[in-house]
């Protein structure tokens, strides 16, 4: 099993994802929010690229969620804070979600053989799901505005460590994958501090979302893995 890491959505080529298991990561905050929504009873999340698309496909009982530049979209029910995706409001209701980076990465990865959603919150479960599919794996870090984000890289490093543990030996990876495993080994014992210190963490803290950063820094809190099926994300 080959496991490669791509640093940003902009560097992702859709034709390189064919017949592979793709794990999309946007730790702060889209994929953490998707995992949280499904964990709390949302039956499906529909990721779209634009606000217009979200409004066009919304059905009467759907919730609209999303952000632009870390701020809730005007007229939407929910933003992109995981704290908003909790019972009772979320249970039993589909969410149509659009974010600046994460949902764009998911859309770009739709040609994958199997598309999974990863975060620090569900890393171990996500690695197990990917390992069970028995395909080569590509980890796509969403990044921010086409720039690499440390929090996504650290999550990629954790996923690689988990996959190697499941395989019982080091797995072949590209240079970025190797670098992110080493970065994870360095940061894992002070993860919250590291995420609060990175560019995305500092930006969210400045906007009043420090609690989101702390929440998203938790590892292996949930055993749930979102998977792409029939144009939406559901439980694996």
Give a verbal description of the structure.
The protein has 236 residues and is α/β, with parallel strands linked by helices. It has one domain: ComB-like (putative 2-phosphosulfolactate phosphatase). The chain has 9 helices and 10 strands. Strands 1-8-2-7 form a 4-stranded parallel beta sheet, sandwiched between helices. The model has no long low-confidence stretch (mean pLDDT 96).
User: Helix amount, in percent?
Assistant: 25-40%
State the CATH architecture. Alpha-Beta Complex
In this structure, how is the largest beta sheet organized? 4 strands, parallel
Overall shape: it is globular
Query: Taking Cα atoms only, what radius of gyration do you get, to the nearest Å?
Result: 16 Å
Q: How many helix segments? A: 9
Question: Regarding CATH, which class?
Answer: Alpha Beta
Spatial arrangement of strands, main beta sheet = 1-8-2-7
Oligomer: single chain
- The CATH superfamily is known as ComB-like
* SSE arrangement, N to C: EEHEHEEEHEHEHHHHHEE
Total strand segments = 10
Keywords: Hydrolase, Magnesium
GO molecular function: 2-phosphosulfolactate phosphatase activity; magnesium ion binding; sulfopyruvate decarboxylase activity
InterPro entries: ComB-like, ComB-like_sf
Pfam families: 2-ph_phosp
């Amino acid at each position: 099993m080959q496991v490669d890491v791509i640093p940003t959505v902009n560097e992702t080529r859709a034709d390189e994802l064919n017949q592979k298991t793709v794990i999309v990561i946007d730790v702060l905050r889209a994929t953490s929010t998707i995992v949280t929504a499904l964990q709390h009873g949302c039956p499906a999340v529909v990721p779209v690229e634009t606000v217009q698309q979200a409004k066009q496909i919304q059905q009467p009982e759907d919730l609209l969620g999303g952000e632009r530049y870390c701020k809730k979209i005007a007229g939407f029910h929910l933003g992109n804070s995981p704290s908003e995706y909790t019972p009772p409001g979320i249970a039993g209701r589909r969410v149509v979600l659009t974010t600046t980076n994460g949902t764009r990465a998911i859309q770009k990865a739709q040609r994958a053989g199997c598309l999974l959603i990863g975060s620090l919150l569900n890393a171990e479960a996500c690695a197990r799901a990917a390992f069970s599919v028995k395909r080569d794996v590509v980890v796509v870090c969403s990044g921010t505005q086409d720039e690499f984000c440390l929090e996504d890289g650290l999550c990629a490093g954790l996923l690689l460590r988990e996959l190697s543990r499941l395989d019982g030996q080091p797995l072949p990876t590209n240079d970025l994958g190797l670098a992110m495993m080493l970065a994870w080994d360095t940061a894992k014992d002070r993860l919250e501090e590291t995420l609060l210190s990175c560019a995305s963490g500092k930006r969210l803290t400045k906007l009043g979302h420090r609690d989101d950063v702390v929440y998203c820094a938790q590892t292996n809190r949930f055993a749930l893995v979102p998977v792409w099926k029939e144009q939406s994300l559901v439980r694996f």
